[in-house]
Every structure is written in C-alpha cells, then in structure tokens.
Amino acid sequence: MNASHIAAALIGGIVALIGALGWHARAIKRSAARLHAEVEAQRETALSAAETRERQRIEQYEGQLQEAGSRIAELEGELARAIGNASELGTALANAEAQKAAWLDDARRLAGEAARLRGLSGTFERWHEQMISLMTQNHDMHKKNQELSAIVAHVLIVSLNASIEAARAGTAGRGFSIVASEVRTLATRSQELSKSYQNSLNRNDLITTATFQDIQAGGKMITASLGSVDALASQLESKILQAST
C-alpha cells in the first residue's frame, strides 16, 4: 500500500470519525433536549401541584376567615343584644327603684295620715265623753229648773194667800199686802225667767243632741277611714316586700 492509499484511508477514517462524532453529538443534543423537556415538564407539574396546593390552602384560609367573620358577626350581635338587655334591665331596675321610692313615700304619707286619724279619733272620743257629761249636766239643770218652777209656783200661791189675808185684815194688813204684792211680782218674774231658762235649756238640748250625733258619725267615719288607711298601708307593705325580693 502506498502513501496515497494510506492518506485516503486516514482521511476516510477521519471523515467517518467526524461523522460518528456528529451523529453522537446530535444524539447527545437530542437526549439533552428530551431531558430538558422532561425537566421542564416535571418543573411545570411541580409548579402546578404547588400552585394547586397553595390555592387550596388559600381557599381553606379564606373559608376559615369567612367562618371567623361570621362568628365575629354573631358574637357582635349577641354582644349588642346583651348590651340592649342590660340597658333594658337597668331601665327596669331604675323604674323599680323609682316605684319602690314612690311606694315608700306613699307608705310614709299613709302612716302620717293614720297617726293623724288616730289623734283625731282620740279627740273625738274625748269630745264624745265631754258631750255625754254636758248632756248629763243639761239633764240636771232641767231637774233643778223644774224644782225652781215648783218653788216659784208655790211662792205665787203663798203671795196670793198673803194678799187675801192682808185684805181681810184691812188697814192693819196694808203693809203686809204691799210685801205680798212685791213677793208676787218677784215670783212672776222668776216664773218668766224659769220659762225662758227652760226654753234655753231645750234649745241647748237640741244643739247638744245634734252635736253629739255629729261627733258620733264623725268618729265612725274616722274609724272607717283608719281601717281603710291601715288596709292600704298593709297592701303597700306587701308590694314593697315583693319588690325587694
């Protein structure tokens, strides 16, 4: 084999080697492209999965936030209702205290009225006793006036008898006749005064009887009013005790 053949062989080997290297390089490039595509696909799959998980986590968080917001809204509503109930309770308590204070004032006024009525009842009882004593005195004065009238009538009879006897005595009985006439005049005046006194006693009896009846009626009215006041005081006391409990 000569040099030309060797050179041609070498050149063919080199060309074949270059061709083999080119093919091998293209194979390597294709493998690298496939590997790059697979890596990109895996990366995109991983990114998609990560995005899906993150989106799910975000949606979960958003759901929890919505639930928390709803719960907060419910709690705010319950708090508002509790505040409203507390306000209503405070108003009711204030009204109850005001009502209790009013009842206490009424109870004190009733107690004062009851004390005043008891005082008036005692006064009426005293007047009742005084009127009974006055009526007894009037009765005694009637009896004494009747006795006085009887005495005056007897004096008139005596003076008439004296005048008759003086007339029989004539001149000697003239002085006695004058005395008898004066006695008869005094007896007549006494009789008139006794009748006037009797009329005054009768009018006094009417006034005393009417006053006595008015006092009795007033005493009964006061007793009835005192019973009503005591009943009202008991009712108020019961209401105050119920309000306190």
Which key phrases capture this entry?
0% strand; rod-shaped; transducer; transmembrane helix; membrane; mainly alpha; Helix Hairpins; 245 residues
Outline the structure in words.
This protein has 245 residues and is mostly helical. It has one domain (3-244): Methyl-accepting chemotaxis protein (Helix Hairpins). The protein is built from 2 helices and no strands. The protein has helices at residues 3-169, 174-244. Helix 1 runs antiparallel to helix 2 (174-244). The longest helix has 167 residues, at 3-169. The model has no long low-confidence stretch (mean pLDDT 76).
Helices and strands, with pairings:
Layout: H1 3-169, H2 174-244
Helix pairs in contact: 1-2
